[in-house]
Amino acid sequence: MRAQLARISHGTQICPKGYIEIDEETGVEKIVEEGIDFSTGNLADSTNWGHRYGNILNNGRCTHKAPADLPEDAVEDYMAK
């Protein structure tokens, strides 16, 4: 039940594109208030909206993880695939 609620929550939360950024050093999300046009016409266009969170994969994670037994030089190719 909890997993299903997480999938629903992740799939239904939206925000204007560019409103939230992730700090590359710390990985913390921050709200960007400058440079976003919050006019009615801009917000009425569906192309200016995006999902707040990424999709949940079938394995229950939000990101792919390489298998532990994979050689180090093959990890990059595996993640790209």
In short:
The chain has one domain (2-80). The chain is built from three helices and four strands. The chain is α+β, with helices and mostly antiparallel strands and 81 residues long.
Helix count, DSSP H or I runs of 4 or more residues? 3
Helix content: 25-40%
Q: What is the global morphology?
A: extended
Helix and strand run: HEEEHEH
> Which radius of gyration do the C-alpha atoms yield?
17 Å
Structural description of this entry:
By secondary structure, the protein is α+β, with helices and mostly antiparallel strands. It has one domain (2-80). Helices cover 31% and strands 15% of the residues. It contains three helices and four strands; from the N terminus they run αβββαβα. The strands form two sheets. A two-stranded antiparallel ribbon has the order 1-4. It has a two-stranded antiparallel ribbon with strand order 2-3. The two termini are 31 Å apart. The relative contact order is 0.17. The model has no long low-confidence stretch (mean pLDDT 82).
List the helices and strands and how they pair.
Blueprint: H1 2-12, E1 14-16, E2 20-22, E3 29-31, H2 40-44, E4 49-51, H3 72-80
Antiparallel strand pairs: 1-4, 2-3
